[in-house]
Design brief:
By secondary structure, the protein is mostly helical. It has 5 helices and 2 strands, in the order αββαααα. It has one domain. A hairpin with a 2-residue loop joins strand 1 and strand 2. Helix 2 runs antiparallel to helix 3, helix 3 packs antiparallel against helix 4 and helix 4 packs antiparallel against helix 5.
């Protein structure tokens, strides 16, 4: 079904297409990245929603606001990237800055056990995603 959609939507034009015949294996990785990365970014943005609800239930409104901006940035970047829109560079750059800011404030305002958690989240989630967004911003910009 996916291949039928791709043929009818014109997704097979370009690297793997020549004289009306599809050459298997040519450009497959690039197509997979064009689909996988936007879906992953949107998924990460949606995955923040339960975390925001938990923070809201604890009255942590400044952090909720920052996470809403991060979530919006991730989802927006994913959607723009999927469309091939050049504005994805701007949203990716802004999202990278928000993620770096979040990591910085989490680490510098935490104490005790919260500090260890802040470092783990920064090193395993926030900083790698910020690096990905920064790379997208530089590559697309």
């Amino acid at each position: 079904m996916a291949s039928t959609f791709a043929l009818h939507s014109g997704a097979w034009t370009g690297a793997g297409h020549r004289n009306g015949r599809i050459r298997p294996g040519v450009g497959g990785r690039a197509r997979a990245r064009r689909v996988t990365l936007p879906v992953a970014l949107v998924g990460m943005g949606i995955a923040l929603i339960p975390w925001m609800l938990l923070l809201a239930s604890q009255g942590e409104w400044p952090w909720v606001g920052l996470d809403v901006l991060e979530s919006t940035g991730l989802i927006g970047t994913g959607l723009l990237l999927r469309r091939g829109d050049a504005r994805s560079a701007s949203t990716a750059g802004a999202t990278a800055a928000l993620l770096l800011t979040d990591a910085w404030f989490d680490v510098t305002t935490s104490h005790g056990a919260e500090l260890a958690q802040a470092w783990v989240l920064a090193l395993l989630l926030e900083l790698p995603i910020a690096a990905l967004c920064g790379r997208l911003a530089l590559r697309r910009g």
